[in-house]
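REQUEST ID: PR-0412
SUBMITTED BY: lab tech R.K.
PRIORITY: routine
TASK: structure prediction, single protein chain
INPUT:
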Amino acid sequence: MVRVKICGVLRAADAARCVEAGADAIGLNFWPRSPRRCALAEAARIVEAVGDAARLVAVVVDARDAELEAIRAAGVRWIQLHGDEPPAELARLGPEAYKAIHLASEAQLEAARAWPGDELLVDARLPGVPGGTGVRCDWGLAGRLAAERRVWLAGGLRPDNVADAIRAVRPYGVDVASGVERAPGEKDWGKVAAFVAAARAIPAER
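STATUS: complete
OUTPUT:
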């Protein structure tokens, strides 16, 4: 069964509601320029509200050590590297971390294969924006990578296309933010429920 990550959650009550809707993972964005930026104090409340019911993932962009330490001290164990971090940084952060990559060419696919760790996230990229664009990535390239690694598929996913995405890519998990929102950080709970239901209806892994 495909795993579902709801990203861009800002409040503990919303995180708890994501768990109730069936989310396996919840993304908390710590990039300062994101409209979905989560405050560290609220992240600690989210940890308390969710407990072990879902994986909590900190989305960071070229974060300094002090910020990473504060995030993990708040109880968010998983780190998603969404910037220009080198492979050595991912290896240093240990098994509870993975890299977000962008696939638009054969060269990028080859580069993705060199990253350490069991998991990768595949997203689309627009100039100046590391992720969360609502733009679909290359499902063909993502599917080839998903045949080799545990891939979280992101980029332009919505309730009406997530089933097609899963059939095409066969990912380990799917990741959604803008596709289930009324506005950045404001979830549409009807869309959240529809997204989870559509994702769970499709057998995912190869």
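NOTES: Residues 44 and 74 are 5 Å apart (CA to CA).
REVIEWED BY: pending
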